[in-house]
Design goal:
The structure holds two protein chains of two kinds. By secondary structure, chain A is of the alpha/beta class. Chain A contains five helices and five strands. In chain A, β1, α1 and β2 form a beta-alpha-beta unit. Chain A is globular. Chain B has 13 helices and eight strands. Classes of the chains: A alpha/beta, B alpha+beta. At the A-B interface, α1 of A face α7 and α8 of B.
Chain lengths: 135, 541
Amino acid sequence: MSQSLINWETISILVVEDEEELRNILCMFFKRRKAKVFSASNGEIAFEIVNREKIDVVLSDVRMPGTDGIWLLNKLRERNPEIPVIFLATGFADLSEEEAKARGAVSLISKPFSVHTLFEILERELSRHKLFKVA
Amino acid sequence: MRKISKVTLLPIVAVLLSCALLLAKVLMDVTSEVKEDQVVRQNFTNMRALSHGINEDVLRSRSFMLQTYDPIVLAAEELKATCDRVKSFNDLPIMKHPSLQESIFVYCRTVEEKMGSVERFKSSNSLFRNSIRYMPLIISQFKDRKTENQARRTFSEILLHGTSNEEMHAEVIRNEVTKLLEMAPASQQPVAEHFARHTGIILSAWEKRKKAEQDVLFSGTEEAHHAMVDVYESWTASRSRSDRIQYSIWILLCAGLGVAVAIMFRGLQTSNATLEEKVFDRTKELREKQQMLVQSTKISALGEMAGGIAHEINTPLGSIMLNAEMMLELIDKETQPEIASVAQSIIKTVNRISKIILGLRRFSRDTGQDCKVPAEINDLIADTLNFCQEKIRMNSVKLTVSVPEGVSVNCVPEQISQVLLNLITNAYDACSDIAPNERFIAVEGKVCEGGKVHLSVTNAGPAIPESVQAKLMQPFFTTKPVGKGTGLGLSISKGIIEEHGGSLTYDKFSPTPRFVIELPALPSTVESITPEFKPSERKAA
C-alpha cells in the first residue's frame, strides 16, 4: 500500500456494483485502508443507504439490473448534491466520461482498472473537498 | 430458337388474321359479283330475244295475215316483267352507276311504248283478219256473175294488198270498188254497197295495223338495248379495272404487312434473346450482391456481438485484476516471490485481454458522428495490431512497423484503425499461399514534402494483375472466395481516407502488393519531424 494523501479512516464510502466478486474485492481494498464501507447491488438499495448513513463518496457501476447508476445519480443530485459520485463503466455502450460529467458525476473509471488508477482518481476527487484534506 | 411469349405473339396473330379475313372478303366479293354479272347479262339477253320475237311475229303477220297474233301480247308482258326485274337490280353494286340506271330507264320506256304498239297491232290485226274472213260470204250474195267477178277481183286485190306496204294498191282497190258500184245492177246495189263498206273497214284496219306494225318495229327498243348494254359493258369494264387495282393494292398491302410482321417477329426474337441475356446477367449480379450483402450483414452482426461480449467480459476482468492486485497487497513479496510473479502475470494477461477488447470496441462502434482529434500514427497502428497481431504471429508472418515517432494526423482514430486493419487483414490473406519463411507484412510511414503523411502496407503476396488493379476500389469487387471477403473493405477504406482529405492508392511500381495512405499531417508533426526520420521498428510478439 502506497502512502495516501487521504485519511481513509475518516471516510465512509458506498460501493454500488451488481457483480458480487468485483463489489467484494473493492470493499476489501477500502476496509484494508480502514475506511467505512457500505455496499449495494443496485441503485435503490444504495439510495436507502445514503439516506440512512453519512456517505462521503459513492463508487457506482453504471449498468445494473433494476435501478441503475444513472437513476442513483439523478436521485443524489436531487437530495444529496454534495456527495460526489464516481462511475465504473465497461466503456462500450455505457457513458463516456464527458457524458458522465455532464450528468453530474465527478469522474468515470473504465473497467478493467488497476487499484492504482482507482485510488489515484478517488484521492484526486476527495481532495477537492476541504473536509478530506490530510488529517 | 428462343420461345416467344403469348403476349408478344398476340398482335402478330391479330395482323395475320386480319389479312386472312380481308382476302376472304375480297374473294367473296369477287364471287358474288361474278354471279350478279351473269344474272344481269342473262336478263339483257332475254330482253333482246323477246324483243326480236315480237318483231318477227309482227313481220310474219304480213305473209300469214289470217293467223292470230294474240300470244304476241304475252311476249310483250314478259319483256315488261324482265324490265321490272332489271330495274329491281339497282341495289346491286354492279348496277350502281347513274348512266346505267338512266339507260335502263330509257330502255324500259321504249318497252312500254312497244307494248302499247303491240296492243294496237293485235286489235287492228284481229279486226283486219275477221273482216277478210267475212268477205267471201258477202261475195256469195251477188246474183249477177259479172258483178260477182268484179267483187272477186277486188277481194284478190285486197288479199294482195294485205301482203304489201305500197299505197298504190289501196287506190287500186278503191277504184275496183267504184267500178263494182257502177256496174252492179240495181238489184245487187245493196250487196255492192255492203261490199264497198266492208272493204272500207278492211282498208282502215289494214292502215291501223300497218301503223301499229311500224310502231312495234321502230319503237327504239333495239337502240335503247344497245345503249344499255354498251353502258353496262363499259361500266363493268371500268369496275373490273378499278377492282383489279384495288385487289392488287390489298394484296400488296397484305404482303407488306406479312413482311412487316416477319421483320417484327425477327426483331422480337432478337430483342427477346438480348433481354434474356440481360436478365441472366442481372440475376447473376444480384445473386452475387445478395451473397455479399449477407456476408456484410454477418460481419456487422459479428461486430455487434463482439461489442456485447466485450461489455460482459470487462466487469469480471476488472474483478480478476483487482483480485490479483489484492494478492500482491496480501503477500510479502520478498518471501513469496513466486506468488507475486503469478499475480503480476495475471495482471499482465488481463491487460492484454483488455487491449484486445479495446480493439473490438473500436471496430464495433458507429464512428459516423465522431469528431476528428489529433492522433499519433504509431498509437493507431498499435491499437490496430492489438486486434490482429496474434493471428499474424501464429501464421509465421513477419510483421515490421517502421514509422517515425511523433507523426500525428487529425482524424477519427477508430476509422483510421479500421482502414489499417482492413489493409493488414488483406495483406495477411495475400501471404497465406506463400512459403512460411517468405511471409511478411511491412507497415511503413513517413512525412513527405507538402505536409503529407505517407503510410504504406506492403505484403509478400503475388503482384496484383493490372486488370484487377482497375477494379480494386469498386464496391463489391473481391478476388477472395465467397464467404471470405465482402468486396467492401477497400471501397469503404477509400471513402474514409477521402473524408479525411487524403487518398488511398495501389502502388503500381512496387514488386509486391503495396497500398499507400496519404493523409494531411498535423502542422506540429511537419515542424518537429526533420527529413532524417527516427524510425522505430517493432516486431510482432
